[in-house]
Write a structure and sequence with these properties.
The chain is of the alpha/beta class and 315 residues long. It has 9 helices and 17 strands.
Length: 315
């Protein structure tokens, strides 16, 4: 099977690696996002998928617009049997959809029709889901609206955060992709339309999503840390400085204090009053510093109960 592979971040690498390793599959073209300035370096760097493709001698293109005549020409010249898309970063347009029809397979990081859109893995963590998975679907017009060929499920562990869950889902995607491609015609015969009445959508996470909302239950704030701690983070302000939370747990406990009030200061954690329960911060990062356990943080930053941490919507 000749495959044109569309992907960009580290998350997509297990799928591309599987295509390289499987003897009956041939990645004839890799399509990825253009080189960008990433991180603190001021020079452009390739996507992880492009770097992998170059290291393995694969033909790769990185168009600014995948639906441009030149990009479409290069894709058609590669003469793929099927297009595989995972975390690519651009919409597949009308001409490509009409040209390849049902032969465009997308690996989406949720159990569709739940959590369509840009941040399905974050949404599963934010909402405290106990289960998630991957859907192999046909690319159609509309946001993740195509027919589903197969799903694979995994449990979300209590200790999972975005990084660990992405790692597991990326490997699951590769396994599901190989399974579906091996019997693609068979899976097309049992494809199912998504139930539109069950659709939920996600949006792209932004920097504005970082601030904790202390009026929410403590368990929701813990989920915020799990889902967003890598970027944009779980943040609050104190005395004009912004702090980032890297580890936390939820405890029971009621009290009259305003949400955001620091109610306990111990080496094992800072207890913050929330809309329901106590948000126990166990690891945090001060501006310009590295993340550290609360016990180490308190050695140079003494705190007393009663101060107010400012989160979302607080002045």
């Amino acid at each position: 099977m000749k495959v044109a592979f569309f992907g960009s971040p580290v998350y997509a690498l297990p799928c591309l690696d599987a295509l390289v390793e499987e003897e009956d599959m041939d990645p004839v073209l890799v399509v990825t996002q253009p080189d960008r300035i990433r991180g603190r370096k001021k020079e452009k760097t390739p996507t992880p998928v492009k770097a992998y493709a170059l290291d393995h001698g694969l033909e790769v293109i990185s168009p600014e617009d995948v639906n441009s005549p030149e990009a479409i020409r290069r894709i058609k010249e590669a003469d793929p049997t099927v297009l595989v898309v995972i975390a690519y970063g651009q919409m597949i347009g009308k001409e490509l959809r009409q040209t390849y029809g049902e032969d465009i397979l997308n690996l989406h990081g949720s159990l569709l029709p739940k959590y369509r859109g840009a941040s399905p893995i974050q949404a599963a963590l934010l909402n405290g889901e106990e289960e998630t998975g991957v859907s192999a679907m046909i690319v159609r017009k509309g946001l993740d609206a195509g027919e589903v060929l197969a799903r694979a499920r995994i449990k979300i562990h209590e200790e999972d955060d975005l990084e660990s869950l992405e790692d597991r889902l990326s490997l699951l995607s590769a396994d599901l992709m190989v399974e579906v491609l091996r019997d693609y015609e068979g899976y097309l015969e049992v494809k199912e339309d998504q139930n539109e009445s069950l659709v939920t959508k996600t949006r792209k996470v932004t920097k504005e999503d970082a601030y904790l909302d202390f009026t929410k239950p403590a368990k929701d704030l813990v989920n915020h840390v799990r889902a967003l701690k890598n970027w944009p983070g779980a943040k609050f302000d104190y005395l004009g400085k912004t702090y980032k939370v890297h580890g936390a747990s939820a405890l029971e406990g009621a009290g009259p204090e305003e949400p955001g009030t620091l109610v306990s200061v111990e080496k094992n954690g800072l207890g913050v009053r929330t809309g329901e329960g106590i948000f126990l911060i166990t690891s945090l990062q001060a501006p310009g510093k590295k993340a550290m356990a609360v016990g180490d943080f308190l050695n140079g930053n003494p705190l007393e109960a009663g101060v107010l941490f400012q989160g979302k919507g607080q002045d």
